[in-house]
Amino acid sequence: MEDAGGLEVNISLEEQPCHMTENYKMIYLPVTYSIVFVLGLPLNSVVLWLSWCRTKRWTCSTIYLSNLMVADLLYIATLPFLIINYSLRDQWLFGEIFCRLVRFLFYANLYGSILLLTCISVHRFLGVCYPIQSLAYRTRRLALLGTGATWILVILLALPTLAFAETGFINGQITCYDMSRPDVFGHFFVYGMILTFSGFVLPFLIILICYSLMIRSLVKPMESHTELGMATRAKSVRTILVVCGLFTLCFGPFHITRFAYFFVRLYATNNCPLLNRVSVAYKAWRPLVGLNSCLNPVLFFLSGGSNRIRLVQELRPNK
Predict the structure, then answer these.
(1) Is 129 part of a structural domain of the chain?
(2) Between 228 and 40, residue with greater pLDDT
(3) CATH code of residue 194
(4) pLDDT (tens digit, 9 = 90+) per residue, 160-191?
């Protein structure tokens, strides 16, 4: 999130402005956003195509993963605007409406992904730990209701960004604010903390609890397990660890550095060196959170060997 745009940003303090040079953004952000766009667009499109056009009967997992792909594609569609913006040295050319829409879709994708991954973790937890008792709760109807409720919650969480994000003149050019104008940053700070807790901390705790209980259930020794069954369980544990690792990598550093940046900017703005360091850390991680749009399709392939086989069959030329 860029406070104000331009190569040099002055954040006003009570005594003197804090001068921050952000030349790195003009190369780093276009490159990282371009990588996410080039990788994410085909990966999500292929998975959505397989789910939407080539799946006769949707399962609960298909419903959740398809919604993930839709959320990712909505975000990926905004990246060309950001790539052009930073390539032109932080000059916004696309008007007020697109400014607000691009910022809104970023948060919608971010917290939509997190909440849909939470739904997937709860669904898998019930299937592994309570396979018989939970049959009534693992239906396509409830999966559709769950994804619908998730989208409503995501829209409500991200809706304030349409009010906070706007365009403004910085250093003689039009810039698209991502957070807010400096004079209302205190209000945005409160909103950001609500987002962090409800959109990341709470879902992350649910995911950790679900997957921890799943691992405990999968590694529990049982005499009835065959060698093949034990190998399948070991593979499931590895998949769980990979999913947790990807989740932590994509979302953890972003929220930690964002909290640090918000806190320092609001309560320790007289410390310019510290403000510069946390600003760089936060803005370096911000585009990397978009990597979840490239990694989410990995869940499709990790969810079962049949998915990989079906993809190969669909892409293989007819003889």
Answers:
(1) yes
(2) 40
(3) 1.20.1070.10
(4) 999 888 888 877 788 888 777 778 888 899 99
d(CA 125, CA 137): 12
The partner residues of 267 in beta bridges, in order of sequence, read none
In sequence order, the 6+-apart residues with CB closer than 8 A to the CB of 246 are 292, 295, 298
> Is 114 inside a domain boundary?
yes
Across 3-29, average pLDDT: 60
* DSSP code for 166: -
Using one digit for the tens of pLDDT, what is the confidence trace for 192-236?
Answer: 999 999 999 999 999 999 989 988 888 776 555 555 456 667 767
Q: In angstroms, rounded to a whole number, what is the distance separating the alpha carbons of residues 279 and 268?
A: 13
Distance CA 115, CA 312 (A): 30
Range of the domain at 60: 8-310
pTM of the model: 0.84
Predicted confidence (pLDDT) at residue 80 exceeds the cutoff of 90: yes
Domain count, the chain: 1
CA distance 80 to 77: 7
157 vs 10: CA distance, rounded Å: 30
Which CB contacts under 8 angstroms, 24+ apart, belong to 190-197?
191/160, 191/164, 192/258, 192/259, 192/262, 193/259, 193/262, 195/107, 195/111, 195/157, 196/255, 196/258, 196/259
**Residues near 58 by beta carbon (within 8 Å), at least 6 away in sequence:** 51, 66, 140
* Residue that is written with structure tokens 């921050």 in the block: 20
How many residues in the chain?
319
Q: At what angle do helices 79-87 and 25-53 cross, to 10 degrees?
A: 170
In a domain, 46, yes or no: yes
Beta-carbon contacts of 177 under 8 Å, excluding residues fewer than 6 positions away, are 2, 3, 4, 99, 164, 165, 166, 167, 168
- Mean of the per-residue pLDDT values of the chain: 81
151 inside domain: yes
